[in-house]
Specification:
4 copies of one chain form a homotetramer. By secondary structure, chain A is an alpha/beta fold. Chain A folds into 2 domains: about 1-220 and about 370-415, Rossmann fold; about 225-365 and about 425-435, Phosphofructokinase domain (Rossmann fold). In chain A, about 35% of the residues lie in helices and about 15% in strands. The first copy, chain A, is built from 15 helices and 16 strands. The first copy, chain A, has helices at about 1-5, 25, 50-55, 95-110, 135-140, 160-170, 180-195, 225-245, 260-270, 290-300, 335-350, 365, 370-390, 410-415, 425-435, and strands spanning about 20, 40-45, 45-50, 65, 70-75, 80-85, 115, 135, 175-180, 200-205, 245-255, 275, 305-310, 355-360, 395-400, 405-410. In chain A, the strands form 3 sheets. Chain A has a 9-stranded mixed β-sheet, with helices on both faces. A 4-stranded parallel β-sheet of chain A has the order 12-13-11-14, with helices on both faces. Chain A has a two-stranded antiparallel ribbon with strand order 1-5. In chain A, strand 6 (about 80-85), helix 4 (about 95-110) and strand 7 (about 115) form a beta-alpha-beta unit. Chain A is elongated and about 75 Å long. The mean pLDDT of chain A is about 95. Chains A and D meet through strand 2, strand 3, helix 3, helix 4 and helix 8 of A and strand 2, strand 3, helix 3, helix 4 and helix 8 of D. Strand 3 of chain A pairs antiparallel with strand 2 (about 40-45) of chain D, so a sheet runs across the interface.
């Protein structure tokens, strides 16, 4: 990972100098030690011997800006109008983020005008006619107990010019965008357009993706909850597999480009015998292929559990044109149902009776309220997003890196997807846990 | 319901007179008041004015034998060998039943030879080569915490003659069969064959079906757990529906012939707007059809939740030959995916944008461990099954009727399926809760 | 139980003739088969040979009025004002009852004026100054997801005259009272006073007690949820006990006069070795006492789990004057802490090292939202309470009896507490499960 | 924190050179890229400008050894005998650690002799007579579903000489000790004694403390599960508080020296108004004290929730000699019951009626099975502990630091307790969330 990260941009754009005393100063007079200084940063790479080599060479060490409250802020809370929008698919914790943004803006900084845009980017486009939602503490006080997003969401692009028109017309000074890769790209374009028009408007993103695949973000919120829930399906698959002679339990989990949910759920309930992810190719046929490995497993133990990420094995759909989804992503072949059918065919062909149970928990996983871990994480992300925005930072996202909250330029984060490194300790642990062979011929 | 029930058989066959003192007598000397007398029974119908009419006419009142420990038993515990088999699909609580059978036989009656047959009826058939499992308290002490069945299961018929050969060869005196409609029919045939061969072997069934569709059984075990879990999918569907503009959440639940899970889950989480069950016909098209009702609901509230039992709307597959499953039941058309596609087509045709999320929790629901309610229920069923079997009763199942445990002749229970009466208070409550119209044209 | 029940009153008082067509008639034209006729009733005792004896003697069979919608109602929904009040301790499902009352009154009967009285009976008394809460569907739509009561509650008596003054002043025609034994007694007095003043006001109670100890009520709402949660504490106690050498896990559960929670939780997680309830006396010392039985158990298995209901063993506090609580009930001695101390002292005295862990889950159990089973049950109770009230019934409570919803005169239900019969199958099952001896000397 | 950490020892002692090829090499031929080189390390401090200053000064940067599999190992798996012991109080995940140790030793390294010592350090001492438990994969396959420890545990010291005698007699080469601060100190002494006797025995600790208070360990296993469960009690307290007029919910949580559970649970369910921890002093009386702040809160909102860590407010017991517990820690005053009584007295004194509900979830929290997050974490800790031990490292513990697994010398970790820094962002977040004032007079 080091190679790529060496070249990334780490400086956060700003709307201008922060000159106003933070209201926190008055509120908690002896709190000044909490403030973050502008030169506080966190190293991007923290491993020896890399560090030693850089120091020896005199190469400056890359670092990210530390998140947290600043003593001086850019916006006058009394005059400021803030906007919040949630985009893309659901994920546990969105309401936690909304709640904590509102609570922090309102109670800590004294901002009184906070608006929610409804149904994602559609909320900025007049033709959809979605109303603006006024957000006050009472309205959001209990929403962390609910899954989903009280603001609604949608997929797909909207015209950046129209979005900025709306921000301008409504005089929004601080916009919080909660969304995944597509939303981050939109946020970058919106920030560019704002810059071009010389508006005083900051755009702060809180990265959201249940797949946990955003570059430079250690872990996305909702991921822990999703993994926990995914283990339920693995338990179900295992129970079904064990109860049948030559029983096979097959579970499809989310993960378009990255197999993090599949891998962590496998580590989270250690009953999985084969974990298939987009990052690691596998064969079905042949002496090293999945079918033969599965056959041997059944001969040995009479049951087997397979977890497959939705983006795995897409080579089997290579000759099909599946189109794109509303977000513009290529539609994936349904690897879960494909595997279920192919496995059945294979064992029919060798006349070995099996019982296969296929489980696709789908939306059950992503529509949950956050668990305690994600409640806490969402709170920190949102509080730091507010601190950053109030200080006039823009075109950035809040992230956790080496367990510390930092600011990341959006453009750095959208360079690439985060994926599982097949040579990492993480994947090695999965292999140790499942005991699965390479599943690749020759 | 009264009409049918008037004519049912309520007398339980017996292997012969029970002459042995129950070991409970010695164990708990002051416990005699717990014993059930042979003339204790529970009325089948308990409603006025029906009862008054019968009394007036001098028609005898139908009643079921009361379950519970008898002072005299038929089998000598020291010599007795017992068998347990679990058949058909999984259901929460099977392991509870196995555990309680073993504990009751072992600790209360002092039976020392208890065997589990593996993988359902296959376990009796030599050619499959499944080993017999010796069941002792230590082996089953913690299995109630696990879903599934430790004995394994299978679907489909096996030769009754071969089954009885095995019972005879192994000298099994008391066989407990845990299974659904098919298993009950098999149990009746096995008992007949035993009778014919004049073997001293009792067959006691504990009815198991997640669909809760067994006649003369108030509620089957595992049903409460299944309903509780099913509400999770409804919550997910509701969360997804609310989060999208014109969002539709569609959940398919189990229920081949009876919509009990769909109906109770609808009452268990009151966010459902349309509940579709096999017992109540519905149209898709036309002014009263589902599509139009759904359209109106979306116009009014911008989201909708639909729950459909897997056996509902089978008229839409009338012209397709779908074959039969391994249990010999006709395969059902996949009403869930069908509805998802048809609803999308309909709204595309009227150019109304919607977002539909389809959830099929399938095996997640039935592979769970029992909840506390089902733990308790399974314990009572199994304890009463043992009391009945030890007393020499046979060809019967244990049931709960008017909240009391009773003995039911298997042949009476397999006459027909239990279904939801569309004129009952139950279905009326569902209608009150969903607010759904009749969904039938003209 | 038969003896007492033979003599109870089963006739429900009424405000007067029901002459108005039920709005259900218009709303669901083909629904008339759902209506309950006035002569429909459910037998109180349903067991043979009791029934046969009565019939032979010509003694009329006692029966309760069947609950459900009536074709004719007493109140004009357009003019009716309804009140709801929740009293006493929390219990899972109170918000479900409130929600279903409001939904049924509003959507099914078209009642538009529904008010909540705050903080129990205090809500009727002007000096407390609690505001009245207007209840509409939007306000209660999601409250079933929350524990507690949105109306607040309080313990203790208030002046009946003042309460009726308030009902009169506000012109309340239909009052729903959700509460336990004390509340039922208050409801009876309020109904009497209303009668005396010849007001047109009906009082319908929905019995609430987490102890499940109300006479003539098969099961109170919230009880199933409480039992389920209580098993968690037993699991914790068992885990702690097993992890220590001579480990003892001791759990105190609710149950002032009746040990239902303790008994059902014991059946719900079969790891309990001693279950102590108010209905069954036990000794600590002596050859048959708890200490010696516990010592033997530890010698044999090295761990033990004890469940004690809060009202058990009160003879050990006989010489202490503990006063009364705000509801006027005598304060109980803390049997949990007492046992913990006495057990430690005993084993110290015989120099046997033990590790005792004491768990008192207290309010964790009663402040939960209802589980699916209780959601469903609360819905039925409330719907039937509304049907009864609209039909002009009064001074009654809704109950489930032999698994059927019925009307019970409040005065019949408050005659005595429901307790566990030590000679019942229930208690026998507990003994079979724990394997505990009599715990009584001589 | 920087000051202390600058001076800590970071070098890991070793039994001798690792010369044997790791079995991983043969098993997964293309896996060599997973191996950790001996010079791979992780910086202790990763913050600018501290790093820049050190580099400028030429001060070497402190770093911890990176955990993970080594290409060369010290022990011959065929001959090696391993021991596992679990000490101190329960904590979610202990069984996960045991399971993963056994699985990793057995399946990855091929070790065949693994023994569990029963009931903590007592297991090494002959006079207790506890048997040794042979640990094989089948025995531990499902234990991660259970709370507690299958090996049992105990508190208190045992003679180090006797412990090492036992290790020597049994020829244990690799001892894994799972325990808290006391166990770590014992482990250091055992390792010293082993060194002195020149035995070939490595001691690897896996730090366990539900309080999350071990220095140089970012987060201890089980903590996330405990926090999640603790939020349940907060929800109960909030529900009870809201349901009463001037309702107060008071929850006591674990945390002897450190308030991490209290603080994180407060962030995990944002309904807490006062969070009291050992690290931050507070007054009860006076204009800034808790009583007055509580009174104001009640006047404003009519309910309040207080969370108190068990070690908070110990100044109120300063004049009492409470003795020490079996582990030798001073017994704490029961701040929960003390606060409950004092708050009641205070409000009685000002004649303001309140309702206070006190909840002490105690062992319910620590006896749970791990949640998915802790399952995963325990797996990584144990796998890395095995890698370290096989490589001949000793007198160390496995830890996570900056989200990376590292080796820490035990002696460095026991220097001090980890506590909450009242000037940290963590505590500031708690204050922002509760809105509580300083609670200190003058």
């Amino acid at each position: 990972m080091i190679e790529t990260i060496e070249k990334i941009e780490t400086q956060i754009p700003s709307l201008g100098p922060a000159k106003i005393d933070s209201p926190i100063l008055k509120k908690r007079p002896n709190v000044d030690r909490h403030f973050v200084e502008e030169d506080e940063r966190v190293l991007v790479n923290i491993n020896e011997p890399y560090i030693g080599r850089m120091v020896k060479e005199g190469t400056p060490l890359l670092s990210f800006e530390l998140a947290g409250p600043r003593q001086k802020i850019y916006f006058d809370p009394v005059k400021l109008k803030c906007g919040i929008v949630t985009c893309g698919g659901l994920c546990p914790g969105i309401n936690d983020v909304i709640r904590a943004l509102v609570m922090e803006l309102y109670h800590v900084y004294g901002v009184r005008n906070i608006y929610g845009f409804k149904y994602g980017l559609q909320g900025f486009i007049p033709k959809y006619g979605h109303e603006l939602v006024e957000l006050v503490p009472e309205k959001v006080a209990s929403i962390h107990e609910l899954g989903g997003t009280i603001l609604g969401t949608s997929r797909g692009h909207q015209d950046v010019g129209e979005i900025v028109d709306t921000l301008d017309r409504l005089n929004i000074g601080l916009l919080f965008m909660i969304g995944g890769d597509g939303t981050l790209r939109a946020a970058a374009k919106i920030a560019d357009e704002i810059m071009k028009r010389r508006l005083k408007c900051s755009v702060i993103a809180i990265p959201k993706t249940i797949d946990n695949d955003i570059f430079l973000v250690e872990k996305t919120f909702g991921f822990a909850t999703a993994v926990e829930k995914a283990t339920e399906s693995i338990r179900a698959a295992h129970t079904e597999a064990v109860a049948a002679f030559n029983g096979i339990g097959l579970v499809k989990l989310m993960g378009r480009c990255s197999g993090f949910i599949a891998a962590f759920a496998t580590l989270g309930l250690r009953e999985v015998n084969f974990c298939l992810i987009p990052e690691v190719d596998f064969d079905l046929e042949g002496p090293q292929g999945l079918f033969e490995a599965l056959r041997q497993r059944l001969e040995r133990r009479r049951h087997a559990v397979i977890v497959v990420a939705e983006g795995a094995g897409q080579k089997y759909f290579a000759n099909q044109d599946l189109g794109v989804d509303p977000s513009g992503n290529p539609r994936l072949g349904d690897i879960g149902r494909f595997l279920a059918e192919e496995i059945k065919k294979y064992f029919a062909s060798i006349k070995m009776p099996i019982t296969l149970k296929y489980i696709d928990p789908s939306y059950i996983i992503r529509s949950l309220p956050a668990n305690a871990d994600d409640h806490i994480y969402c709170g920190f992300l949102a509080q730091n997003a507010v601190h950053a925005g109030m200080a006039g930072k823009t075109a950035m996202l809040v992230s956790r890196w080496h367990n510390t909250y930092v600011h990341i330029p959006i453009k750095a984060a959208v360079q690439k997807r985060k994926t599982i490194n097949p040579n990492s300790g993480l994947w090695f642990s999965v292999l140790e846990t499942t005991g699965q062979p390479s599943l690749k011929n020759g």
